[in-house]
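User: Hi! I'm working on a homework problem where we have to compare a predicted structure to a textbook description. Could you give me the structure for the chain below?
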Amino acid sequence: MAKLKLGDPAPEFALPGTGDRTYALSDYRGRKLIIAFYPGDFTAVCTKQFCSYRDQGERLDALGAAVLGISPQSVDSHERFTEEKRLNVPLLADEDKSVARAYGVLAGPLVRRATFIVDEEGLVRHRNVTLAGLSYDSVGDLERALAAVA
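Assistant: Happy to help. Predicted structure tokens:
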């Protein structure tokens, strides 16, 4: 598993996601991007994480960065999760886990909870990979991380 370091180019990806579209890293060139890898739709911590992003949507919007969630579930699962929980972050389907592998967040068969901030030039400026996946970057954590890379 490759470990991305701060300053490394973020691995390119193009994945299907919610809203019946494909999302690519290159779509966000010129803008900061927060990528939140998570283990699974409808799991306790993932639900808490993305519902907190929903509930603090105004603060999240004020960050001036796009936010994407990536996990190995299907787009259908993501659509159900988004609809049931009224989520506001696009969720992308990395079903073969190739993007998780490229970002170094695959632990055996499982995707680790991780957050990356990619700058306007496509370089990794923040990396937080949890070992057990029981915690996540809150909106406050994201605010502090973005302020540090500004």
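For your comparison, note the following. The mean pLDDT is 94. The two ends are 29 Å apart (CA to CA). Good luck with the assignment!
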